[in-house]
Amino acid sequence: MAEEQESVLQLLPSSAAGGEGLTDVSPETATPEPPSSAAVSPGTEEPAGDTKKKIDILLKAVGDTPIMKTKKWAVERTRTIQGLIDFIKKFLKLVASEQLFIYVNQSFAPSPDQEVGTLYECFGSDGKLVLHYCKSQAWG
Amino acid sequence: MTDDKDVLRDVWFGRIPTCFTLYQDEITEREAEPYYLLLPRVSYLTLVTDKVKKHFQKVMRQEDISEIWFEYEGTPLKWHYPIGLLFDLLASSSALPWNITVHFKSFPEKDLLHCPSKDVIEAHFMSCMKEADALKHKSQVINEMQKKDHKQLWMGLQNDRFDQFWAINRKLMEYPAEENGFRYIPFRIYQTTTERPFIQKLFRPVAADGQLHTLGDLLKEVCPSAIAPEDGEKKNQVMIHGIEPMLETPLQWLSEHLSYPDNFLHISIIPQPTD
């Protein structure tokens, strides 16, 4: 069950050192997310461009998969799909053994080692990459 | 055209003579002989190495066996990359046979995806095909197919059945009469010299003036370092299926005839051999 959280759309770089994982940049949150380097942070309103190191991702839930309170995220281009899956699972408090599938264009599930930057280049529109996530296989 | 159809067959039936040797630190009950096999260039390692696995497991104890993985000169081989791509990228300048080392321990989690069953290979393969069609036809052609057509594509690959595969795949190679080619060309360019896994971008097969874009046009646009300057020395080979197509080749033609079964052009940029 996803916890209720304040979704604060600020870009606050995490000051704490840490391992991998993604930033919880909301200072109001009650969720003890592990602080880490800001590879993923809540979305900004900047226009996306070729030279930006981060790209905007919009996450949409499919079926009865829990909905993320914060849907728009700025993600480093080199972040992989697996990294994104791990992040969403942590954010939604899914157990490690639960599966999560991510789809592009509501048609294909990219390989876990695919970089989001490449997907954005090829399948992004209106300055963002829309990804659907689901606990079961939605589009085969 | 007869010649072009021959190209499809030559690509499909390409083979790489390979020698599989068990890693020396694996624990065996008796000596493990190397195993020789002709690997299909267009397939995937974990799809075609059941016999290799059986051969080595015969000399090992059950408790010493976990997931099989392959390595060439210290580099773990990604099973989800086509075999021909792996060979061209990593071993094409070395003498045959391709010497691959087989492991059953210490799976390199950081480098390889797990492959617990053939279903995983099928899912990966179908996903690549869907991605390719998203680029070529906005997914219209693949989405119009029935489930049994998708199954036939997979079964054709799995059972090395050229006719079975191409009966369906030919539909993915068509384009509207009023166009001169696909919407975008599905391609990936690999180099061992960079950090990035591969280059993949949107690229149209036809220019605004109706001219067909060539392989050279693609490289100039997305990987200019791959081609030598006009009067410079040729530093790299641009390789697909073990050959160097002329840079003047229309990209649309390459996409229709030299794609892998997943409908992607997997292109290797490798240093020019110095012999």
Structure commentary:
- The complex is a heterodimer of chains A (140) and B (275).
- Chain A is 14% helix and 19% strand.
- In chain A, strands 1-3-2-5-4 form a five-stranded mixed beta sheet.
- The model of chain A is unreliable at 1-37 and 45-49 (pLDDT under 50).
- Chain A has two helices and five strands; from the N terminus they run βββαβαβ.
- Chain A is α+β, with helices and mostly antiparallel strands and 140 residues long.
- The two termini of chain A are 25 Å apart.
- Chain A has a domain at 54-134: Roll (Ubiquitin-like (UB roll)), CATH 3.10.20.90.
- Chain B is of the alpha/beta class.
- Chain B folds into three domains: 15-103, Roll (Ubiquitin-like (UB roll)); 118-173, Orthogonal Bundle (Serum Albumin, Chain A, Domain 1), CATH 1.10.246.190; 187-268, Ubiquitin-like (UB roll), CATH 3.10.20.
- In chain B, the strands form two sheets. A five-stranded mixed beta sheet of chain B has the order 2-1-5-3-4.
- In chain B, strand 3 and strand 4 (75-76) form a beta hairpin.
- The radius of gyration of chain B is 20 Å and the shape is globular.
- The model of chain B has no long low-confidence stretch (mean pLDDT 95).
- Classes of the chains: A alpha+beta (140), B alpha/beta (275).
- Chain A binds chain B through residues 78, 104-105, 107-113, 115, 118, 121-123, 140, and chain B through 80, 113, 123-124, 126-128, 130-131, 134-135, 139, 142-143, 150, 184, 196-198, 200-202.
